[in-house]
């Protein structure tokens, strides 16, 4: 059980809120060029 306790103690130091915020920011940043790419593939028509 000490092994599992050590894993959970290690995960406690990770800032999951910061990871979630950076993930959402990355999705928003990637969405812009993705829309442009899709528009270019479809000839400019949505």
Short summary of the structure?
The chain has 46 residues and is an all-alpha fold.
Report on the architecture of this protein.
The protein is an all-alpha fold. Helix content is 80%, strand content 0%. The relative contact order is 0.08.
Show unreliable segments.
Answer: none
Q: What's the mean pLDDT score?
A: 85
Radius of gyration: 20 Å
Helix content: over 70%
- Category from helices, strands and their pairing: mainly alpha
Using the alpha-carbon principal axes, give the shape: rod-shaped
Instruction: Count the beta strands.
Output: 0
User: What's the tally of helices?
Assistant: 2
> What distance lies between the first and last C-alpha atoms, to the nearest angstrom?
56 Å
> Can you summarize the main beta sheet?
none
* Beta-strand proportion: under 5%
Order of helices and strands: HH
Features:
mainly alpha; 0% strand
Layout of secondary structure:
Blueprint: H1 2-12, H2 16-41
């Amino acid at each position: 059980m000490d092994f599992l306790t050590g894993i959970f103690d290690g995960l406690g130091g990770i800032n999951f809120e910061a990871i979630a915020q950076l993930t959402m920011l990355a999705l928003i940043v990637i969405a812009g060029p993705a829309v442009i790419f899709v528009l270019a593939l479809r000839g400019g028509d949505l």
